[in-house]
Design the sequence.
């Protein structure tokens, strides 16, 4: 030990409990008024581990009349932070109190490292309290004079008294007990009692209603939106042991993909039958008339909508209905077809998908490259793509062949006949395939 | 058909209710069970009592009274023509389930909706009966959210509001054309009339409680609504415009979005996530920007691309900032609150802390790190 260090007499303060805010406040106030530095105080808790040198409380200087006011925000902060398990909390709060005695607005400097640390302690305590309010699970037992609800919980901090008021206000008419390793509380006939800590074995191990609750938990879960991380962030695994529904988490996650696939399969297999199919088609058609998803609507006069029975098993798609507004250049009075550009096709693909969504054909034929682009979102070469089908997003087949107008524009008689024969071959192959899919 | 047990019904009717996104149990009048015969309290902040593996919170017992329906709305799993298994709870069963779950601390209360059976009025009567029994017979003081049937008699809706903390009516789709196509039996006019009448009841009751302490409460947590995203031709810009109109005209507390995906479409441009879910997320972010960050609907539209869609890969606040680079950098030590709220990575809480702290010190980067959780994003724009 350095003999030269000036000796300040160490003050020893013993608090009645880990969460003894009143005891801390009374002692801290007097010591701060007397100008005792934080380094000279040893805070300890009754029944807790005594400081290395042990010993009884030092006689405290008589407290003079309060010379400075403490802001309300500090009191709130201290009430929460004092419940933290960090053994330094008492001295950190004392250091903050000294700071406030010199600068009454010190609470406003949120970027101050000391205040920041205390705010973090208080936040962790509030979170622990909140999780206790949320994740306590009562189990009903026969309590002799009627039902009693008992829960077991392991908080991270000394929060049981702090959190008790919520249960009192919420479950006033019930009789209940909350058992924790440090402290147990009991509510009977409008009186809150305390008893020593307990073990898990002291709590009941089940409740028949839990099976019903698990049914609810499994049914309200949407397997199509699996977000396991979002769940564990808010409901960390350390709480799971006391929550009966979490026993299902593993199997729900494992089964999710299968359930989602089954849902898609079911909805794909089930055509949008019912009285509204026709109405739906008509409304889609009306909506398309007012479409402004790309610039073509500005000079178009009408839209080209799908035609045919709504229970069709084949849909064919060709140029103008891949884009709903006919694109043209005016030559005299004639409107000459012009190829829509990719953005126009892509804007119109939405309608394409809506039409196919209503009809749900097993097979779609794209006549020409524009139609193929519209259906698949890819630019394809027909000569290479026409022999084998592609699979669309909904799982159905898409066959590609040439647009009939291509045949009319071939000048050589021989080649025209040849291409026509290939086109007819394509159509025959597609019809057979559709028949097979329908079977 | 054999009688279904309560548990079997619960499996069907909870499954049928999960497409309603709302789970809020906050923002209602403060009350507790002291001095009463029953259980229940509401203390401002809602509590999430569990989380499902889909990341959603479980706060309320969210169920349908029945999933039978005389309507045939295409986006709905419970439509008349759907071949799902049907079930129907009695009012008594719902009351018992709610109380049994509540007493074990599983839930904050009940969110009850229903398919339409026989008639709108008949259905609404059943919903009101559950809420009435909970409140009057069992003195239940927890949270109740009732879904109102748009065509129901105004007197029934009034009774619903007397018992419930929140009443909601779904607008279903962002465009009238979409509603006509997908829910031919519903009409925008009737839905909006019902919302307007709910609004005036809420305003009247609030006005009365300021003058007479004993005046009856009417839906103290206000009304909300839900829109399905991706089932009609509406762009994000259209949706934001519609939501903002709804907030203004009907004083809604919340507009919820629910991504519709009849078939997942892996052909979409962004393969990272199923697009509808990300789109839904971006719309919620834009909703937050309008409600808490001072963005106008027009500014959200400015953050969209040429087709009126919000980018999927970045959040709308960042998208807006990238389009208006001349507004940056922002001096954290001097800029007004409105400008600080525009800095990507600074949330409302961080801005409040910055404003307070900078009166005492010059804010340096290390201070910002203590004040916000996402330093990387705001370091580039301030």
Sequence:
């Amino acid at each position: 030990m350095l003999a030269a260090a000036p000796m300040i007499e160490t003050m020893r303060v013993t608090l009645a409990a880990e969460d003894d805010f009143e005891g801390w406040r009374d002692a801290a106030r007097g010591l701060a008024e007397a100008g005792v530095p934080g380094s000279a105080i040893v805070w300890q808790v009754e029944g807790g581990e005594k400081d290395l040198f042990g010993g009884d409380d030092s006689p405290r200087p008589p407290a003079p009349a309060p010379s400075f006011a403490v802001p309300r925000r500090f009191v709130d902060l201290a009430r929460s932070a004092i419940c933290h398990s960090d053994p330094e909390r008492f001295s950190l709060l004392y250091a903050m109190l000294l700071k406030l005695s010199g600068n009454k607005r010190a609470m406003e400097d949120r970027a101050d490292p000391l205040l920041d640390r205390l705010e973090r302690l208080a936040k962790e305590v509030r979170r622990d309290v909140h999780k206790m309010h949320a994740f306590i699970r009562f189990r009903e037992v026969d309590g002799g004079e009627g039902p009693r609800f008992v829960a077991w919980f392991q908080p991270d901090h000394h929060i049981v008294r702090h959190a008790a008021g919520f249960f009192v206000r919420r479950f006033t008419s019930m009789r209940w007990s909350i058992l924790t390793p440090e402290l147990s509380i009991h509510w009977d006939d409008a009186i809150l009692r305390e008893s020593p800590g307990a073990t898990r074995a002291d709590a009941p191990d089940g409740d028949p209603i839990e099976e019903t609750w698990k049914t609810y938990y499994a049914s309200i879960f949407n397997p199509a939106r699996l977000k396991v991380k979002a769940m564990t962030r808010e409901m960390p695994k350390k709480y799971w042991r006391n929550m009966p529904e979490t026993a299902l988490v593993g199997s729900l996650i494992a089964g999710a993909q299968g359930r989602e696939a089954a849902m898609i399969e079911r909805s794909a297999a089930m055509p949008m039958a019912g009285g509204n199919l026709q109405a739906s088609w008509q409304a889609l058609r009306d909506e398309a008339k007012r479409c402004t998803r790309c610039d073509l609507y500005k000079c178009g006069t009408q839209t080209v909508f799908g035609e045919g029975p709504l229970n069709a098993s084949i849909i064919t798609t060709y140029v103008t209905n891949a884009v709903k507004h006919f694109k043209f250049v005016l030559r005299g009075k004639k409107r000459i077809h012009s190829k829509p550009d990719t953005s126009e096709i892509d804007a119109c693909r939405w309608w394409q998908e809506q039409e196919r969504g209503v009809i749900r054909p097993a097979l779609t034929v794209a006549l020409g490259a524009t139609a193929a682009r519209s259906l698949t979102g890819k630019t394809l070469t027909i000569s290479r793509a026409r022999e084998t089908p592609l699979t669309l997003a909904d799982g159905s087949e898409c066959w590609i062949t040439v647009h009939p107008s291509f045949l009319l524009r071939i000048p050589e008689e021989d080649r025209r006949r040849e291409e026509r024969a290939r086109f007819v071959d394509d159509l025959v192959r597609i019809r057979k395939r559709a028949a097979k899919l329908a079977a | 058909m054999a009688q279904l047990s309560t548990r079997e019904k619960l499996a069907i009717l909870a499954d049928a209710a999960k497409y309603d996104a709302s789970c809020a149990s906050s923002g209602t009048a403060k009350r507790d069970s002291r001095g009463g015969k029953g259980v229940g309290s509401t203390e401002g902040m809602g509590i999430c009592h569990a989380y499902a593996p889909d990341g959603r919170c479980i706060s309320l017992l969210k169920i349908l009274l029945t999933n039978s329906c005389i309507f045939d709305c295409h986006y709905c799993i419970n439509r008349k023509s759907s071949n799902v298994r049907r079930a129907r709870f009695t009012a008594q069963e719902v009351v018992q389930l709610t109380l049994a779950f509540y007493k074990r601390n599983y839930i904050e209360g009940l969110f009850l909706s229903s398919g339409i059976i026989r008639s709108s009025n008949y259905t609404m009567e059943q919903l009101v009966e559950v809420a009435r029994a909970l409140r009057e017979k069992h003195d239940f003081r927890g949270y109740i959210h009732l879904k109102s049937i748009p065509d129901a008699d105004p007197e029934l809706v009034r009774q619903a509001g007397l018992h419930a903390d929140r009443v909601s009516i779904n607008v279903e789709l962002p465009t009238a054309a979409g509603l006509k196509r997908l829910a031919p039996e519903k009409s925008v006019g009737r839905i909006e009339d019902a919302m307007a009448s709910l609004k005036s009841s809420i305003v009247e009751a609030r006005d009365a409680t300021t003058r007479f302490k004993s005046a009856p409460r009417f839906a103290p947590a206000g009304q909300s609504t839900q829109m399905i995203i991706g089932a009609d031709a509406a762009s994000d810009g259209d949706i934001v415009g519609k939501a903002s109109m709804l907030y203004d005209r009907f004083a809604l507390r919340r507009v919820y979005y629910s991504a519709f995906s009849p078939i997942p479409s892996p052909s979409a441009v962004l393969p990272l996530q199923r697009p509808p879910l990300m789109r839904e997320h971006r719309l919620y972010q834009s909703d937050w920007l309008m409600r808490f960050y001072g963005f106008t609907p027009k500014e959200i539209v400015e953050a969209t691309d040429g087709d009126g869609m919000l980018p999927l890969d970045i959040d709308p606040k960042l998208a807006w900032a990238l389009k208006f680079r001349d507004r940056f950098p922002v001096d954290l030590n001097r800029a007004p609150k409105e400008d600080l709220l525009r800095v990507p990575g600074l949330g409302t809480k961080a801005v409040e802390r910055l404003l307070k702290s900078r009166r005492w010190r010059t804010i340096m980067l290390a201070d910002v790190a203590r004040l916000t959780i996402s330093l990387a994003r705001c370091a580039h724009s301030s």
Observations:
- Residues 263-275 of chain B have pLDDT under 50 and may be disordered.
- Chain B is about 40% helix and 10% strand.
- Chain B has two domains: 6-263, 327-379.
- Residues 188-211 of chain B form the longest helix (24 residues).
